[in-house]
């Protein structure tokens, strides 16, 4: 028995060596950091997009499973609707859109992998989707190395501008800063910050701290719960003792339910403790509970109740397609708009080529449900109109304040003196 | 009782025996297929396969720890994460200083004060990084194993403890956003020890590096399984008290297996980072740690090749099925786990021997139990579903 095994082991050794040698021969030696210049990486990528047929492939990447599915599925719905509308009206450059769908599974790593798959395997001309900052940060290097295009439809914390991403949600100066301006105009001096523990709330609160310091406001407390956390007893008690005028809420998802329930049980309401939320849209209101939210404030660039022709059509088409009980929200609208902005840029460029689309994106505009949006070619964000809303008794949000015209996007808050140290 | 004792003695007599002939043939076939895979796969799929192989490294370690040692760790994500973050920190620092950069990773100036924290600094050195990747997780595993196993914490208590540990580790990483990137994790790497990652030639080299590491791990683990250590480990799994009576210290033996599994998981994590291009808390949390186990259980946790095959199957299935049926996949994954644990505790690798046994039992032939060599050495008679939980 002993001899038997060892002889087998001996025959295995040359085999292993062969595998190793094969590996070395096949792989050879690639380029090193010092020898490769910065730009060569993206230039060497050859696009595999097929523009010869009557169809053009595009990719949608949203979380259809996992914790983010409940939000991201709504974005997928409005993307699907936009693709169908475009196809019915003749497609893009006469080509029908052929949607390749991917599930990001609420996991940054999966987002990166599936985005890479869409670009290199499915050969899509552009990709639409993503929600969390983590998913965007995970996909960013993929789009940059493959030199492809991502349209990201959600408001976020800013401090980013990738040559391969178009951001159709609000930059911080189109959501957080206007919310603060509004609070200042209402005379709120002492702010209590509560947020989920991840990148967006932490960066947003950094911006709020800097703003407060420069504008004679004080932040009385800054509290975080883990994503999905539901224990707010301590935090709401702290709020009670803090003497705050108002709450700035950057909580995400389910945590809002627990927070507002605890909030109400301590006797707070929209008059005794106004709360402005930046992650609660029409879609989230029934989940959090209308009773808990009625009269509270939100900051977005789009509400279902907006009185524009484009919005009336958008809402009624959406309800006709998905059901009368469905609502539309800011990220859904931004996703819908993103597909049209890409279409307009492609048509202006008369090409699906990524570099040509980018070169022709500056100044592209679209009459969106939220009003006219225009792409800023420099930082790849869009001009949008910030709006403060108040939750009404029907569970929708009424606009109570808005800027007179769309604001130029400023992801790094360069135009604000108080924000100098932030980026 | 009597049967187990004689089984232990019988195994001691055969301690020089290795995996059976069929296992070696399968090993050679697997190595050959994986070595030739880049000839037929496109660049994207080579990267994907390399990523799956990194996961399978964790599975190989778990095979020894759980299958042979009976220690069910729900927290291998900790070690995968330690290796991954150590490698990622080095790559971030190297990228930041390349081409006359400031030496400060971008996210630190965005979320923090723009200074590199002191505990990051040693990882500027590639040598320190390469030493830390095996050493740090092994020390952690040793400290934990020594503390826990010496106190005779075992079975479900250990499993719960390991799960709590990985949950806490993920929370810690998320909370320390200024120095770990928080829920975003660390990503956006351009170089790997001086080589440009985004170069097809380098990517293929990376694949072969991963493959060679996996094959070496498999060989080492295979030999370890049938060494004296492997035999004692098996005995600890089956009758811990008796091993103690014989003069061995079961705690040290289990700690050694735990340290070994941590080493493999850490190397897997370290190689995962250049392959996948990102490491974030959601790669190492509770769910990924359970999915590591799923592959091991599916493939056959106490077999030589079961864990690595099971892990590859689960990864490939997850990738292809989750796109086609997003929410359905989670249910299927759960159902698969239940079915394997309840009906086939030995995993798919023991399917053939168990069918053979069953047929022999049905036909009423004598010596139905453990007749063939394969079923004895490759698949050590498995615990029942009940035992599995109580352990």
TrEMBL record, chain A:
Pfam families: Peripla_BP_5 (PF13433). InterPro entries: ABC_urea-bd_UrtA (IPR017777), Peripla_BP_I (IPR028082). Signal peptide: none annotated. PANTHER family: ALIPHATIC AMIDASE EXPRESSION-REGULATING PROTEIN, PTHR47628. This is Urea transport system substrate-binding protein. It comes from Propionibacterium cyclohexanicum.
Automatic annotation (TrEMBL), chain B:
Keywords: Cell membrane, Membrane, Transmembrane, Transmembrane helix. The chain crosses the membrane at residues 21-40, 46-67, 74-93, 127-149, 156-175, 205-226, 257-279, 328-352. GO terms for cellular component: plasma membrane. This is Urea transport system permease protein. Residues 363-375 have a biased composition (Low complexity). InterPro entries: ABC_transp_permease (IPR001851), ABC_transptr_urea_perm_UrtC (IPR017778), LivM-like (IPR043428). It is a multi-pass membrane protein. Its main location: membrane. The keyword Cell membrane applies. CDD domains: TM_PBP1_LivM_like. It comes from the Bacteria. Residues 363-391 are annotated as: Disordered. GO terms for molecular function: branched-chain amino acid transmembrane transporter activity. It comes from Propionibacterium cyclohexanicum. Pfam families: BPD_transp_2. It is found in: Cell membrane.
């Amino acid at each position: 028995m002993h001899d038997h095994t060892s002889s087998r082991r001996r025959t295995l050794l040359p085999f292993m060596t062969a595998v190793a040698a094969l590996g070395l021969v096949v792989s050879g030696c690639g380029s090193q950091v010092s020898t490769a210049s910065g730009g060569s990486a993206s230039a060497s990528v050859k696009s595999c997009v097929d523009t010869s047929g009557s169809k053009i492939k595009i990719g949608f990447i949203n979380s259809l499973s996992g914790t983010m599915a409940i939000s991201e599925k709504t974005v997928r719905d409005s993307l699907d609707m936009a693709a169908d509308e475009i196809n019915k009206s003749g497609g893009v450059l006469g080509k029908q859109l052929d949607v390749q769908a991917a599930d990001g599974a609420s996991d940054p790593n999966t987002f990166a992998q599936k985005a890479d798959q869409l670009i290199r395997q499915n050969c899509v001309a552009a990709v639409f989707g993503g929600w969390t900052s983590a998913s965007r940060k995970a996909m960013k290097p993929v789009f940059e190395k493959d030199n492809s295009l991502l349209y990201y439809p959600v408001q976020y914390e800013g401090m980013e501008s990738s040559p391969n991403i178009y951001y159709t949600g609000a930059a911080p100066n189109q959501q957080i800063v206007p919310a603060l301006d509004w609070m200042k105009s209402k005379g709120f001096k002492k702010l209590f910050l509560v947020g989920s523990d991840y990148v967006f709330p932490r960066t947003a609160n950094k911006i709020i701290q800097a703003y407060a310091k420069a504008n004679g406001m004080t932040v009385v407390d800054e509290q975080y719960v883990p994503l999905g956390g539901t224990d707010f007893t301590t935090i709401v008690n702290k709020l009670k003792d803090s003497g705050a005028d108002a709450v700035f809420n950057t909580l995400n998802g389910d945590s809002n339910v627990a927070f507002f329930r605890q909030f109400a049980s301590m006797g707070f309401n929209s008059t005794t403790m106004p709360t402005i939320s930046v992650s609660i849209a029409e879609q989230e209101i029934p989940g959090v509970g209308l009773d808990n939210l009625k009269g509270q404030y939100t900051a977005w660039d789009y509400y279902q109740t907006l009185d524009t022709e484009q919005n009336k059509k958008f809402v009624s088409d959406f309800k006709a397609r998905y059901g009368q009980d469905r609502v539309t929200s800011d990220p859904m609208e931004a996703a819908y708009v993103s597909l049209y902005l890409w279409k307009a840029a492609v048509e202006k460029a008369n090409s699906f080529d990524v570099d040509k689309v980018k070169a022709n994106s500056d100044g592209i505009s679209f009459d969106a449900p939220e009003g006219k949006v225009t792409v800023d070619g420099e930082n790849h964000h869009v001009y949008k109109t910030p709006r403060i809303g108040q939750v009404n008794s029907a569970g929708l949000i009424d606009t109570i304040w808005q800027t007179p015209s769309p604001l130029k996007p400023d992801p790094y808050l360069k135009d604000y003196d108080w924000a100098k140290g932030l980026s | 009782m009597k049967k187990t004792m004689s089984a232990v003695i019988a195994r001691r007599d055969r301690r020089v025996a290795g995996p059976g002939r069929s296992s070696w043939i399968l090993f050679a076939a697997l190595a050959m297929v994986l070595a030739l895979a880049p000839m037929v796969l496109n660049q994207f799929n080579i990267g994907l396969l390399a990523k799956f192989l990194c996961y399978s490294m964790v599975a190989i370690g778990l095979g020894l720890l759980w299958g042979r040692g009976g220690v069910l760790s729900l927290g291998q994500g900790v070690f995968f994460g330690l290796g991954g973050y150590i490698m990622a920190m080095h790559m971030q620092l190297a990228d930041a200083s390349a081409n006359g950069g400031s030496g400060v990773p971008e996210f630190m100036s965005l979320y923090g004060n723009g200074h590199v924290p002191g505990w990051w600094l040693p990882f500027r050195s590639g040598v320190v990084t390469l030493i830390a990747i095996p050493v740090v997780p092994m020390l952690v595993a040793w400290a934990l194993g020594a503390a826990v196993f010496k106190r005779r914490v075992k079975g479900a208590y250990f499993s719960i403890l390991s799960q709590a540990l990985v949950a806490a580790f993920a929370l810690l990483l998320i909370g320390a956003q200024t120095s770990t990137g928080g829920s975003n994790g660390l990503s956006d790497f351009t170089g790997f020890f001086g080589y440009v990652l985004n170069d097809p030639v380098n990517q293929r080299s990376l694949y072969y590096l991963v493959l060679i590491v996996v094959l070496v791990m498999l060989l080492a683990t295979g030999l370890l399984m049938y060494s004296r250590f492997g035999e004692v480990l098996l005995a600890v799994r089956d009758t811990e008290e008796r091993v103690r009576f014989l003069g061995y210290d079961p705690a040290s033996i289990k700690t050694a297996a735990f340290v070994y599994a941590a080493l493999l998981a850490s190397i897997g994590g370290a190689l995962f980072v250049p392959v996948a291009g990102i490491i974030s808390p959601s790669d190492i949390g509770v769910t990924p740690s359970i999915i590591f186990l799923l592959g091991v259980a599916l493939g056959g946790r106490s077999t030589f090749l079961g864990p690595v095959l099971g892990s590859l199957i689960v990864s490939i299935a997850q990738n292809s099925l989750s796109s086609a049926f997003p929410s359905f996949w989670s249910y299927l994954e759960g159902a698969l786990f239940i079915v394997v644990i309840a009906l086939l505790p030995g995993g798919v690798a023991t399917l053939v021997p168990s069918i053979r046994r069953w047929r022999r039992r049905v036909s009423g032939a004598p010596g139905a139990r453990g007749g063939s060599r394969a079923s004895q050495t490759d698949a050590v008679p498995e615990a029942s579903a009940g035992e599995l939980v109580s352990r």
